[in-house]
Amino acid sequence: xxxxxxxxxxxxxxxxxxxxxxxxxxxxxxxxxxEPTEEPTEEPTEEPTEEPEAAIGSPEHPIKVLFVPxxxxxxxxxxxxVMADALNEATxxxxxxxxxxxxxxxxxxxxxxxxxxxxxxxxxxxxxxSQLCGVDVAFKAVRYGYPVYWAEYIVARDSEYxxxxxxxxxxxxxxxxxxxxxxxxPFVEFRDAGVTPGEQVQTGxxxxxxxxxxxxxxxxxxxxxxxxxxxxxxxxxxxxxxxxGTVSEDMYEIPDEAIPNCAPxxxxxxxxxxxxxxxxxRANIRTEAPDVMQKVRILAVSAAIPxxxxxxxxxxxADLRAQIEEALLAFAGTDAWGESIGxxxxxxxxxxxxxxxxxxxMVRAMxxxxxxEIEE
Length: 376
What we know:
This protein has helices spanning about 5-25, 75-90, 105-110, 125-135, 180-195, 205-215, 240-245, 290-295, 320-330, 360-370; strands at about 65, 95-100, 115-120, 135-140, 150-155, 170-175, 200, 220-225, 260-265, 270-275, 275, 295-300, 305, 310, 350-355. By secondary structure, the chain is α/β, with parallel strands linked by helices.
């Protein structure tokens, strides 16, 4: 091959290569590489925190003051508020007056709210509540020097009933099965005496029971008894007389000759009979039934019962309890006490004394002996 032809072939190949290059894809700029993107994340949120519980005794968390519904609820609420205001002024704590629907409901509330309840409950209620959830007694009531009270059996004054035995088969009116004087003590005494009453009618309270006997709706009723006062203002018999066994049955009632003259005083505050003052449950309906003494008499009076209590929930703070106890003792010495729980239309407590749990062992023994179930 000649040199000239070789050169022509080389140039031809170069031309072909150039042509192919011209027809190829255009060169592209190298693309920038990007890191893989992460899913967008939300800013972390803090878990909602629970607001701290309000302090017991604060306006947001008042201390519940419970009263059993043994008398008119309106009287309890009004008088209870007098006490609540006095305790608030003395301690700075806030109190809420509550009247549960029954004795059992009062116990249930104390056990359900162990840290913020205090209650004025009778001996039977306390005995049950202390066993059920550890409710603890602080004070017992004093009425005209008596650390005890009684149940009384009342009948129409013109009825033929003269003894407990006569009540066999008779219609029985009582306030509440959780009431010590209104039901439990009479129940035990009937059992011990071998007496079986007839139909039982739950009236709702002591006042209503007296009214039921007064109207003839029941044959007899059981309510609380307090010793009457002489015209000189002294109890007919003292606690010491009672303990000594020198009290006769006729001393429980005022003299027969004074009965026709029984009536409320001019202000309606007292039930007086020629100066003798009636303090048992009959006096509570003196306004609506001024002649209650002429229509209703005492048939019998029970054995002595440990007085009602002021008790605290089982987990009530000790420091708050100490403040309240001190304030209550001071309040008991004021005139306002008589407008509150000291009123005879309320519970008639003339004072309070420290109480111990052991004082209510008698009531527990009564509960055990009768087979009375705590759940009841």
